Amino acid sequence: MEVPILKQGHYLIASIQSALTDADLMQLRESLVARVGKFRARGVIVDVTALDVMDSFAVRTLRDITHMARLRGAETVIVGIQPEVAFAMVQLGLTLKGVATALDLEEGLAFLDTQARERIDRA
Amino acid sequence: MPDAVICPIQADVDVVQTRQQGRNLAADAGFSAGDQTVIAAAISEIARNILMYAKRGEIELRAVTQAERAGIIIIARDSGPGIKDIQRALQDGYSTSGGLGLGLPGARRLMDEFEVISNGNGTTVTMKKWREARA
Predict the structure, then answer these.
(1) Residue B41 maps to a domain
(2) What is the pLDDT of residues B50-106, one digit of tens each?
(3) What is the ipTM of this complex?
(4) Can you give the residue range of the structural domain that contains A95?
(5) B133 touches chain A (CB under 8 A)
(6) pLDDT tier at B45 (50, 70, 90 boundaries)?
(7) CATH classification at residue B65
(8) Were A66 and a residue from A76, B79, B129, B131 both cysteine, which residue would form a disulfide, CB within 3.0 to 4.6 Å?
(9) Span A98-112, mean pLDDT?
(10) pTM here?
(11) How far is CA A105 from CA A79, A100, A102, A109, B111, in A?
(12) Residue B88 lies in a domain
C-alpha cells in the first residue's frame, strides 16, 4: 500500500494509513528522499499513528529516511508513536537515536518551525 | 478464530499478516493491548528471521491453557541452513546478515519462555507468553 505524501508549505507530510510491508517501507523511503528535492522541502513529517507494530526493519527504515533527508537538506520528525508501540520498541532494544520525534502532527509542525527559525538565526 | 493457525512465511506480506493473526489470537485470549503489541512485535522479528536466513518456513500460533494460566505459543519452523552458534545468535548486536542483530535476543526479551533448536536441517523457535505471568 502506497503511503500518501502531502506537501504543506516547505514541509512534506507522509501519513501512514495501515500496516506496511518491507517493500512499502522502502518505497516510502525512496519517494520521500526524491520529493525532498522535487519540492525543495525543508522538513519531513512521518506520521506513524496508524502503525500498531514497529519492528527492527521499520525502525531502521525510519532512521534511514531521517539521515537521507538530512543529507538532502531537510529535517525529519517522526510523530504519533503509540504508547504500546513505544513499550514494545524499548523491550526489543530498538532506539531512534539521532531521530527527532514528537507527540503528534501539531507538535511535529511546531518542531520543524523551530528548526527553521534556528536555521535562519544562524545564517 | 480457531485455537491454532499455521501461517506460511515466504514473502514480506506474510510477516505483516502473521503478526496480525498473532495479535488477533492474543486479543481473543484476553491479553492487554500492550501485550498484544509485544506479541505482534516478537512474531514480526522471528518471521523476518525466517525470510532472511531460510527464505521460507512457517509460524504456528496457538492459544493454550495450562493449569490456571492462559497464554499463547508461537512456533517458528524452517528448513534453512540452521544457526551455527545459538549462544551468539542470542546475544544483542550479533548478526550474520548485516541486520541490527536484534531479531532473536529482542524477541526473547519480549516473551516469557524462549527456546531455539537448530541443526543442519533447520531451525525451530518456540516462544510463549503467559497472561498472568506478571502481576
Answers:
(1) yes
(2) 998 899 999 999 999 887 889 999 999 999 888 888 878 787 665 555 454 567 888
(3) 0.88
(4) 5-122
(5) no
(6) very high
(7) 3.30.565.10
(8) A76
(9) 97
(10) 0.89
(11) 6, 13, 8, 6, 33
(12) yes
Interface test with A, best of B12, B21, B46, B109 (most A CBs within 10 A): B12
Domain count, chain B: 1
CB A33 within 8 A of CB A65: yes
Q: How many domains does chain A have?
A: 1
Closest chain A C-alpha to B64 CA, distance in angstroms: 22
Among A14, A10, A11, which residue's Cα sits nearest to residue A1? Answer: A14
B135 belongs to a structural domain: no
* CA–CA dist B58, B77 (Å, integer): 5
Q: What is the CATH number of the domain that holds A15?
A: 3.30.750.24
B38 neighbourhood in chain A, CB within 8 Å: 84, 87-88, 91
Provide the domain limits for residue B122.
4-130
Q: What pLDDT band is residue B133 in, cutting at 50, 70 and 90?
A: low
Q: Which B residues 2-41 touch A at CB under 8 Å?
A: 12-13, 15-16, 19-20, 23, 33-34, 36-38, 40-41
Residue to test with chain B: of A55, A61, A91, A94, most B Cβ within 10 A: A55
